[in-house]
Amino acid sequence: MSINQKRRLVLTGLGILPLMLAGCSKEKPLVVHGQDITGANFGRDFNLQGPNGKRYTLNDFKGKALMIFFGFTQCPDVCPTALARAVEIKGLLGEDADKLQVLFITIDPERDTPEMLEAYTNAFDPSFMGLYGTLDETQAVAKEFKIYYKKVPTGSSYTMDHSALSYVFDTDGKLRLSLSHAQSAQECAEDIRQLLA
After folding, report:
1. Torsion angle in degrees (nearest 10) through CA of 184, 27, 35, 62
2. In this structure, CATH architecture of domain 31-196
3. Domain named Thioredoxin: which ranges (predicted)?
């Protein structure tokens, strides 16, 4: 065994080599109000349809920061609040507002038609986009992004119980941030601005 091999074995055993390699990452460390999830092994991609019938993947949004929220158009409070906050975030980004793309992925494809999704997202901001899939695709993307959702009967209809996190990707298409529903638009904008620098 060579000296370099022995040194690598010792450094790996001490847990130092992974730290040294992490330091070589081109992503600069984030100081955020949300959660820095750089290097997460989930949220790697999606393949869903837009209102125009075109299918979209993560690659289609490279070059922009991408904020994704999972919800449904008949949501009484969390979803409209999250999208209204996204409008405020864009306003706070000023000249960089166009560098942020907001996606709303439905967890209720049975009721959220492409037309409804488009009208819903456009009511907040014409640049926001609603994506949808089949029931199986919805389940798969929710699993990939570690999103919880469940149909809850309410009289003759139903509502959806679901996670209330927003995920943010950097301009290279890498998942970097998780923003809680409790964060202010100002805090979110400060976090996202770091991905645009």
Report:
1. 60
2. 3-Layer(aba) Sandwich (3.40)
3. 37-197
**In this structure, how many other beta carbons lie within 10 angstroms of the beta carbon of residue 140?**
15
Work out the number of other CB atoms within 10 angstroms of the CB of residue 99. 16
φ, ψ (nearest 5 deg) of residue 40: -60, 145
pTM given for the model:
0.85
DSSP E strands in the chain: the ranges are 35-36, 47-49, 55-57, 65-71, 100-106, 129-131, 149-154, 157-162, 166-169, 175-179
Which residue do the tokens 């864009």 mark?
Answer: 90
Structural domain spans, the chain: 1-25, 31-196
Write the single-letter amino acid at 40.
Answer: A
